[in-house]
Design brief:
Cofactor: Mg(2+); Mn(2+)
Order of helices and strands: EHEHEHHHHEHHEEHEEEEHEHEEHH
Number of strands: 13
GO biological process, one term: cell wall organization
CATH architecture of the largest domain: 2-Layer Sandwich
GO molecular function: ATP binding; D-alanine-D-alanine ligase activity; metal ion binding
Protein name: ATP-grasp domain-containing protein
Family: Belongs to the D-alanine--D-alanine ligase family.
């Protein structure tokens, strides 16, 4: 029986979401006949790996423990097959300003933005920084930690005063904040999966409609706080442009197996790149399962196919080494 070790939990602000993602994934894989164990990211992990000798590791760790690349470096050093990008690729996507620069260079639009370090914010004067950001980028502005997920520390600032408060909150999660102009339009996410033949498939865009207009942590993970439409209510041209933007981001950021790209589609149908998740959520309110269902697929089948594909890919690479 194929054994899978699901990693969930970890010491981050997103621990609860990670646990829920891991539990849902484990249930799906068990329904397909896999032997699945869930392990936390703690001092017992390497002992668990040695005892279980899993055929595959699937990290569902959100936040820095699972997305900053360090854990994936360890998994690769141990010679383990695992789902998702390798360490260096994870670091590119995890750092939002870096990801934006790379995706923009590939021709995908991204909102005007600037990364502001906490030390810079203090040293050159908060008032001057706030005034220049509001003037040069144009209000409203979206503020978020430059490295983080699940919309923790995310705010939309419509005044300079709100901008200051938003930056202070973002700095509680990271010492670098990303401030970007808010592009008005339809917020969507596009899931990309690698199929058995190695080809990439972009699933139907999921349209995100929070009840009060701000897709923050509470709206992301609390049932009833956000309405989703799959496929998104876009024109055929805007839909195709969104799929191509997500495929470009997946390739440019060197993702593997599974990714989720977040976009804003403006009134002209142009998709604007926001970010690309290293370890997308798999909870009951997450967009990846919604996209899978919107494509007429079963999540358990998609996850099982990925497991088999990654194991086969790993064995081929090992035999060729």
């Amino acid at each position: 029986m194929t054994s899978v070790l699901v990693l969930a939990g970890g010491l981050s602000h997103e621990r609860e979401v990670s646990v829920r993602s891991g539990r849902r994934l484990a249930e799906a894989l068990r329904s397909k006949g896999f032997q699945v164990k869930i392990a936390d990211l703690d001092r017992h992990l390497l002992g668990t790996v040695d005892a279980l000798q899993p055929d595959l590791v699937w990290p569902t760790l959100h936040g820095s423990p699972g997305e900053n690349g360090s854990l994936r470096d360890v998994l690769q050093h141990l010679g383990l097959a695992f789902v998702g990008p390798r360490g260096p690729s994870s670091r590119m996507a995890w750092d939002k300003p870096v990801a934006k620069a790379l995706v923009a260079r590939a021709g995908v639009a991204t909102p005007a933005h600037v990364a502001v370090a906490h030390s810079t914010f203090r040293q050159i004067g908060a008032g001057a920084v706030l005034e220049r950001l509001a003037r040069d980028l144009g209000l409203p502005l979206a503020v978020k930690p430059a490295r983080g997920g699940s919309a923790l520390g995310f705010h939309v600032a419509r005044t300079a005063t709100e901008l200051g408060a938003a930056l202070v909150d973002a700095y509680a999660y990271d010492d670098l904040a990303l401030v970007e102009h808010v592009v008005e339009g339809t917020e969507v996410s596009v899931t990309v999966i690698e199929q058995a033949d190695g080809e990439l498939r972009a699933l139907p865009p999921v349209e995100i409609c929070p009840v009060d207009g701000v897709f923050d942590y509470d709206h992301m993970y609390n049932a009833g706080e956000t309405e989703y439409f799959t496929p998104a209510r876009l024109s055929p041209e805007a839909t195709e442009a969104s799929l191509q933007a997500a495929l470009t981001a997946h390739r440019v950021l060197d993702h593997r197996h599974l990714s989720r790209t977040d976009l804003i589609v403006d009134a002209d149908g142009t998709p604007w790149f926001l970010e690309c998740s290293v370890s997308p959520g798999l909870t009951e309110t997450s967009q990846v399962p919604l996209a899978i269902a919107g494509a007429g697929l079963q999540a358990a089948d998609v996850y099982a196919d990925l497991v088999e594909r990654v194991i086969a890919e790993h064995r081929t690479a090992r035999d060729d080494a």
